[in-house]
């Protein structure tokens, strides 16, 4: 160990994880203490995971954190997670941030203070590249003063913020590439909740558990758009056709408009969503380079609407993975496989049913004939506990049919997943 460079020891300590373990490791010898002081890059205080912190007073925890942080010089990554701990004094937390801010590149900040402090004012105009703020309030953003010239990643979770401050904060990050918004408390003075964001550098946005009347996003460089568990009356994306990855999961949107030419899409994943297939297909049909299409637990606004897989094959000739569920509850197939087309590049097919039915096997057999180069087949199914004699016969016939199919397509890796 005596031949290990002190810089390498600093890297080792930075990967240990929790601060208390880093401190214990650093007292091994003088060389390790020097590595802790001058070459430690990352430090994490996760007060939720350690029972040690629950047996001492909050004031004592403040002293421990203060002592630990003040023994470091040049810290680049700092994480402070204190969900289950009482409020800290504002002066102590401010001292932690002031001591580290000149070199800090990554900050995970989940601290409750009394009185509250302005995290943006303390950390602005420095080298910070990644900022995660949890369970805090952001009020009165001044983009000219509270500017983050190096920030590329911003995550706000359970944060209270106004639409104007959110917009100004994004403006204050001229190099922002990734934005994550989860469970925001949007504070407004009127009845309508509207958010308008504008960024020329933003490439990825993730939005979860947010309810809005209107969400307008203008992002010329956006490549990855993911919405989950959101309710909106209107969502508009204004860009320049760079979108590659698009995912909707359990989203309710009355008016959904991608106001750009959608030609660069490579992956589309839609689940737990009600929509018009014709409108949606028209929106994505020009993306001839699409590689992944997933339509899972989707509902159609028009009950008689169908998805013609022949049109999918022609619009997306390079499709490699296709996933969908057949609605067989009312003896109706929303997906039609007839036609003389072939899906030569399809390698993975993920398919499921809503109820065991005799139509499933003929559909699957017909569709597999269209996929000559299929490598993997994943079959999802729902089998209810209560069985009638007719259900038992249907299940037995289905099982026998699938076994025959597996023998015919022995080159295909078949997986079954039942609920």
Question: Mind explaining what this structure looks like?
Answer:
It is a single chain. This protein has 419 residues and is α/β, with parallel strands linked by helices. 26% of the residues lie in helices and 30% in strands. It contains eleven helices and 27 strands. It has helices at 6-14, 19-26, 30-38, 58-70, 90-100, 119-123, 163-171, 277-284, 309-315, 360-368, 389-408; strands at 42-46, 77-81, 88-89, 106-110, 113-114, 130-134, 153-157, 160-161, 178-182, 185-186, 194-199, 204-208, 211-219, 224-228, 231-238, 245-249, 252-259, 267-271, 274-275, 292-296, 299-300, 307-308, 321-326, 335-336, 348-353, 376-381, 413-418. The strands form six sheets. A 15-stranded parallel β-sheet has the order 1-2-4-6-7-9-12-14-16-18-20-23-25-26-27. It has a four-stranded parallel β-sheet with strand order 11-13-15-17. The protein has a two-stranded parallel sheet with strand order 3-5. Helix 4 (58-70) links the parallel strand 1 (42-46) and strand 2. Helix 1 packs across helix 3. The longest helix has 20 residues, at 389-408. It is globular, with a radius of gyration of 27 Å. The model has no long low-confidence stretch (mean pLDDT 89).
